[in-house]
Known about the structure:
Blueprint: H1 9-63, E1 75-77, H2 82-87, E2 90-94, E3 100-108, E4 119-123, E5 129-133, E6 143-155, E7 158-163, E8 166-171, E9 174-184, E10 187-198, E11 203-213
Parallel strand pairs: 1-5
Antiparallel strand pairs: 2-3, 3-6, 4-5, 4-6, 6-7, 7-8, 9-10, 10-11
Amino acid sequence: MxxxxxxxxxxxxxxxxxxxxxxxxxxxxxxxxxxxxxxxxVTAALQDDARLVLQRMAQxxxxxxxxxxxxxxxxxxxxxRAVPAIARPFLLRQAADGxxxxxxxxxxxxxxxGVRPDxxxxxxxxxxxxxxxxxxxxxxxxxAIPLLRRSYRLSGDRLIxxxxxxxxxxxxHVRDLRITRVPQGEYERLDLELTLFxxxxxxxxxxxxxxxxxxxxSSS
Length: 220
């Protein structure tokens, strides 16, 4: 009788158990890596959204109160509705807990991109300046500065921008947005704090941005 060599039942069960153990460990590593990759992607998307929104707000804040090269006291108003807007180009309203309610800005719009301005300031940068409704062309020896009113507000978890007759949601999943005015010598600094969240993974991220304003703003 020939002696048969090979795996017995015990060896086969042990090999199968070890194989399943290795497979389970590899699966857990794969799932953990995939989850980390998804969380990293969500975090990067939140960061991109926050960066775009805060940079846009910062650019528009820097242009707030920019009304040409002459003092406001010499500006004449062909459109009387522009008087309060020019007098108070920065209006900030926040809820009792400090969360943004609305932010209204009025200032120059250098990148027009098809947006119709609310007013146009015509000036020769020497002795005269006047504000007219809508778009207006400059005459000889004059420059035309488009002026735009921008209004930010929180609606639920969305940040809404109304500007140039267009209303659009800039970003969703906003948990908090706060703006703090900080005196800084003869100028002023605005500290923006934006908190975004991602409900599926329960991720919350806070972003901060500071803007130094060169144009003098009236108190809101």
